[in-house]
């Protein structure tokens, strides 16, 4: 009897310990939100939120201080748009090709090879962008600056391709075979089946992969910190040095800004802006997945 | 008839187009890695591996950097492995499908999408400042552990889910308690899958740069760390530091260090893929 009670106690304790492990994830989220909010609030005591949202100059580290986030936003927007316009079409094409055209053996060789692109550390991609892509692009665009949004965005796009292709392929392969067979039975080619049946049927999954790719690109740090420059500039010109939100945080962290100063708090103001964008995107994608996931059981 | 021809043509065209998209990716990868090897292989030497960093590119080495990476790798594994697997077990085996587990699930999906640099800000405030760990290896490892926790949890859950319920039911029918069933049956049966997920997550942590820069890992550390409370640098930060310098000699150093970093990452991923294949072959439910 006593042994039984012991065991029950032990079981209870183990369950509690495991629950604590799971709760750490909640604590992490709470920690992130609290820390960003607290530091951002003290930042906005010094700087008006109107200036933060409307000024087109971001110079917290200069003597002439100005705190407008717009240049960092435009930099982030620019590199993200370039990256997505590479990653989405190429990634989707690969997903459709692998799912509809490639033979099983070919696919089982190609998928791990594509995964290699996804495991290369981002700092290495930064090196590629700065040392290979920028000099290469300069042969076509002589006025291209040594640091620019174009090559950083392009390389970021290449990095995100396997992300898009594997998520989209998952979505495509979960479409039941009967739909495809019905389409072939009507005399459609593979191309027609892919674009008129498979892609529409898997659209929610494909949209989710696109949204997550955007969120990825917004938060990507090292490529832009290395290859896009450190000059916050309110522009959409991809050939000049710019700065993204993430690259700014890196720039401040590399220097020695005194703890507690307004300059120190700017990284949290920039951080909360970044967090809000990715949070919204991630939740939209989660919502689409839960709401529109086609259930073909 | 014309219509069919154009359909056939589109079909063929897309086949070529799809194949060229893949070739484009592979070619880029080959060019990138070829360039790195071409630039950096000549610089790789025993001296390079065992020298401290220096103002002079030719005398600089990556000794402190790879020792730092090793420290971070071991500590991050020690912290994230039990926590992640524990949380995964709880969510998969105990978490009744109530509101709490729904919340945990959404929360983990969200955490997986938080940019790594935000984890750096969290680590900076919580570990470096509030817990007064300073710019230590421990603070870095804790930050990275939080970063990869969602990946480990998700892969642990997938591995546990793959164990057929008949095994669990048989164990319970023989009088085993819930934990005995998990410990003696479910975990051993899913261990290969769990390990694969953990290794992939750790290899991601090894390549991370941004969060460690934010918590204040240094670019220049003239000594080898000897305890978890020492200041440190890691390979990616050393690479970033060298890439940021204008002199060409430092770019060559960076390329050589990248070869070492890529070797570590590819090795870990190779082990993970090998384990996954072996595990899938061995167990055929």
Molecular structure report:
The complex is a heterodimer of chains A (297) and B (285). Chain A has 297 residues and is mainly α. Chain A folds into 2 domains: 2-46; 70-292, MetI-like (MetI-like fold). Chain A is 76% helix and 0% strand. Chain A contains 12 helices and no strands. In chain A, helix 3 (70-101) packs across helix 6, helix 4 (104-119) runs antiparallel to helix 6 (149-173) and helix 11 (245-254) runs antiparallel to helix 12. The longest helix of chain A is centred in the first third of the chain and has 45 residues, at 2-46. The radius of gyration of chain A is 24 Å and the shape is globular. Chain B is mainly α. Chain B has a single domain, classed as MetI-like fold (Orthogonal Bundle). Chain B has 11 helices and no strands. Chain B has helices spanning 2-40, 46-50, 63-94, 99-112, 116-130, 137-161, 165-173, 178-207, 210-214, 235-243, 248-282. The N and C termini of chain B lie far apart (51 Å). At the A-B interface, helix 1, helix 3, helix 4, helix 5 and helix 6 of A face helix 1, helix 3, helix 4, helix 5 and helix 6 of B.
Defining traits:
heterodimer; A: 297 residues; mainly alpha; MetI-like fold; 12 helices; 76% helix; B: 285 residues; 11 helices; phosphate transport (chain A); membrane (chain A); MetI-like_sf (chain A); MetI-like (chain A); transmembrane helix (chain A)
């Amino acid at each position: 009897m006593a042994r039984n009670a012991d065991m029950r106690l032990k079981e209870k304790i183990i369950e509690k310990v495991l629950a604590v492990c799971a709760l750490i994830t909640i604590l992490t989220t709470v920690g992130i939100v609290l820390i960003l909010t607290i530091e951002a609030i003290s930042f906005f005591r010094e700087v008006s939120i109107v200036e933060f949202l409307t000024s087109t100059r971001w110079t917290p580290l200069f003597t002439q201080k100005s705190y407008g986030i717009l240049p960092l936003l435009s930099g982030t927007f620019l590199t993200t748009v370039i990256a997505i316009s590479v990653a989405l079409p190429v990634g989707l094409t690969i997903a459709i090709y692998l799912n509809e055209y490639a033979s099983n053996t070919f696919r089982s060789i190609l998928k791990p090879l594509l995964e290699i692109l996804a495991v290369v550390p981002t700092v290495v991609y930064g090196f590629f962008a700065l040392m290979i892509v920028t000099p290469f692009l300069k042969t076509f665009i002589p006025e291209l600056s040594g640091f620019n949004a174009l090559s950083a965005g392009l390389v970021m796009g290449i990095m995100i391709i396997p992300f898009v292709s594997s998520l989209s392929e998952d979505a495509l392969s979960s479409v039941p075979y009967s739909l495809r067979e019905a389409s072939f039975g009507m005399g459609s080619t593979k191309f027609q089946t892919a674009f008129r049946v498979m892609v529409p049927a898997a659209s929610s999954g494909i949209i989710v992969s696109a949204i997550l790719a955007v969120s990825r690109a917004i938060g990507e740090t090292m490529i832009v910190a290395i290859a896009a420059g450190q000059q916050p500039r309110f522009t959409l010109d991809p050939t000049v040095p710019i700065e993204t939100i993430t690259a700014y945080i890196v720039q401040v962290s590399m220097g020695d800004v005194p703890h507690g100063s307004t300059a120190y708090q700017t990284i949290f103001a920039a951080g909360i802006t970044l967090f809000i964008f990715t949070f919204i995107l991630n939740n939209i994608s989660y919502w689409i997945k839960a709401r529109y996931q086609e259930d073909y059981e | 008839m014309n219509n069919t021809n154009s359909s056939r043509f589109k079909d063929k065209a897309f086949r070529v187009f799809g194949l060229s998209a893949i070739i484009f990716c592979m070619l880029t990868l080959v060019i990138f890695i070829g360039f790195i090897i071409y630039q950096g292989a000549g610089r790789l030497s025993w001296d390079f591996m065992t020298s401290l960093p220096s103002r002079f590119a030719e005398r600089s080495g990556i000794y402190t950097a790879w020792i730092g990476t090793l420290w971070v790798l071991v500590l991050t594994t020690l912290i994230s492995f039990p926590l992640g697997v524990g949380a995964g077990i709880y969510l998969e085996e105990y978490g009744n499908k109530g509101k709490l587990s729904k919340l945990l699930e959404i929360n983990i999906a969200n955490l997986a999408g938080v940019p790594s640099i935000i984890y750096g800000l969290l680590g900076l405030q919580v570990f470096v400042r509030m817990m007064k760990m300073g710019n230590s290896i421990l603070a870095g490892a804790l930050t990275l552990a939080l970063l990869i926790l969602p990946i480990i949890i998700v892969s642990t859950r997938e591995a546990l889910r793959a164990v057929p319920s008949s095994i669990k039911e048989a164990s319970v029918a023989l009088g085993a308690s819930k934990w005995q069933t998990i410990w003696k049956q479910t975990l051993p049966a899913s261990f290969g899958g769990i390990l694969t997920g953990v290794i992939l997550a750790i290899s991601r942590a090894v390549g991370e740069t941004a969060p460690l820069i934010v918590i204040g890992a240094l670019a220049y550390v003239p000594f080898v760390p000897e305890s978890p409370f020492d200041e440190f640098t890691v390979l990616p930060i050393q690479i970033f530091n060298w890439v940021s310098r204008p002199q060409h000699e430092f770019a060559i150093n960076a390329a050589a260090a990248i070869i070492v970093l890529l070797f570590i990452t590819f090795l870990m991923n190779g082990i993970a893929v090998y384990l996954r294949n072996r595990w899938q072959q061995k167990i055929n439910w």
